[in-house]
Design brief:
The protein is an alpha/beta fold. 36% of the residues lie in helices and 20% in strands. It has two domains: 163 residues, Nucleotidyltransferase, domain 5; 160 residues, Nucleotidyltransferase, domain 5. The protein is globular and about 60 Å long.
């Protein structure tokens, strides 16, 4: 779990981490989030003289943000957890915002990260899987049923590798960090090899690595062109573990997308700027939004945020955040899968 106290301008004033405890079951994960958020709020009261006044939590899986319910998360094992209500009760009735981890991270990247100033953006983290956040005028679109942005399940190779979602040939089966890790492990014969190793081999000119990398980039470009044709983003932000390869990824990816577009307007393709702090920052922003904080306030209290997920390269994370527009900042807690 990742947690933070966040200021009204998006700055992280205090950060903390602890184990999610998922091996002890979903109830223990929920209890851990509540405890972590309460401890963080108490720290904020002691450090800044006043407790946070709102909270934001971002979780993986299926999320009903309107009802404040974490509907389902396979890796955390929970179903229909009324997390917003539980957290609000634990924190003394303060307002709580609940969001999906990728969309929450995308909110931060769009407002204060790589997409800052863009009226339309698409944030795509390449981790254990692939998801997306569709940014429009400072907010992130969830869709009618909370599934907007699931670009990882766009079919780019019809009849290809089976996906747990029930389809075959989904983008994330070819271009996620885990897919590249698997392909490179098979190609080089080392079961411990991962995507970072593949990127290093690409840089050294290894023919096997170049073939694996090319297949992943081509699949990613196909999926991204589908997305930009539908959404027409001004900026395309790529994050997650695979993006850590830097220009080893971005140079061929930009070329591959450029070759595929015809009538479409080519967006700027940039790396994410906030790294694994995006979830906490986004949770803090959601908390400040609850309090209608239009601009940073002098002397404003920090907000607390918390997130949970698997690893820095994994897609989903859970974040709980409390925000105070006048004295302390929002608090965020993010459990890891």
């Amino acid at each position: 779990m990742k947690a933070a106290l966040a200021g009204p301008g998006g700055e992280l004033l205090h950060q903390a981490r602890r184990a999610t405890g998922r091996e002890r079951g979903p109830e223990a994960v929920v209890a851990g989030i509540l405890d972590f958020a309460a401890e963080l709020r108490a720290y904020g009261a002691d450090r800044f003289g006043e407790p946070a006044r709102a909270a934001g939590v971002a979780v993986p899986g299926i999320v009903d943000a309107e009802q404040g319910v974490a509907v389902y998360a396979a890796n955390l094992g929970w179903r229909d957890v009324p997390l917003r209500g539980l957290l609000g009760e634990r924190l003394g009735g303060i307002p709580v915002a609940l969001g999906h981890d990728v969309r929450t991270g995308g909110l931060a990247e769009g407002r204060i990260g790589a997409g800052r100033g863009a009226d339309r953006f698409l944030f795509v983290p390449l981790g254990t899987g692939i998801a997306g956040a569709i940014g429009i005028d400072g907010r992130v679109e969830a869709g009618a049923h909370g599934f907007a942005g699931e670009i990882g399940h766009v079919v780019v190779r019809p009849g290809g590798i089976a996906c747990p979602c029930g389809q075959r040939g989904c983008l994330e089966r070819f271009a996620s960090a885990s897919a590249v890790s698997q392909a490179w492990a098979e190609a080089c014969g080392d079961p411990e090899a991962d995507a970072a190793d593949c990127a290093k081999a690409v840089e050294s000119g290894d023919a096997r690595a170049l073939a694996v990398w090319r297949d992943a980039v081509d699949a990613l470009a196909d999926g991204l062109v589908t997305a930009l044709t539908l959404l027409d983003p001004r900026v395309l932000i790529i994050g997650g573990g695979l993006a850590e390869a830097g220009e080893t990824l971005f140079t061929p990816l930009r070329d591959a997308v450029r070759r595929r577009v015809t009538f479409q307007k080519l967006p700027e393709i940039v790396p994410a700027a906030l790294g694994d702090t995006a979830g906490c920052l986004g949770a803090g922003l959601m908390a400040w939004d609850l309090l209608d904080t239009a601009a940073p306030t002098a002397g404003a209290a920090p907000a607390a945020t918390a997130t949970t997920g698997t690893a820095a390269t994994a897609a989903p994370t859970d974040t709980a955040s409390t925000a105070d527009p006048t004295s302390t900042a929002p608090t965020t807690v993010t459990p890891r899968r």
